[in-house]
Specification:
The protein is mostly helical. The chain has 5 helices and no strands. The chain has one domain. Helix 2 packs across helix 5.
């Protein structure tokens, strides 16, 4: 097992628990959106690899085992701009929640 595999193996369950998306499919069929845990897992992997969103997605295309651990397939990987926007939206949502508390 590689370090990346061990890392993502620990991140995905935590991301599912934190986002409350444990029962959701990472990339629902029929054009649905990605589960938040998939975005969080991909973002954590980007930080771990210390790469851009684009480079992270490019690297993942060569790592089917890692993609599978997240619950995705190579064809399911989001465009880097989608990943970036999703994480920005999540961050803003968290900021708004903390301001209203």
């Amino acid at each position: 097992m590689t370090q990346i595999s061990r890392f993502i193996g620990e991140v995905v369950p935590v991301a599912k628990r934190v986002t409350g998306d444990g029962d959701e499919s990472a990339a629902p069929e029929g054009g649905g959106g990605f589960a938040d845990y998939a975005f969080v897992s991909l973002h954590c992997l980007r930080v771990y690899l210390d790469t851009s969103y684009r480079m992270t997605i490019d690297l993942l295309k060569e790592m089917p085992q890692i993609i599978g651990e997240i619950g995705l397939e190579a064809d399911d990987l989001p465009h880097p701009s989608t990943l970036c926007k999703a994480f920005d939206d999540m961050s803003m949502s968290d900021r708004l929640r903390s301001c209203s508390s």
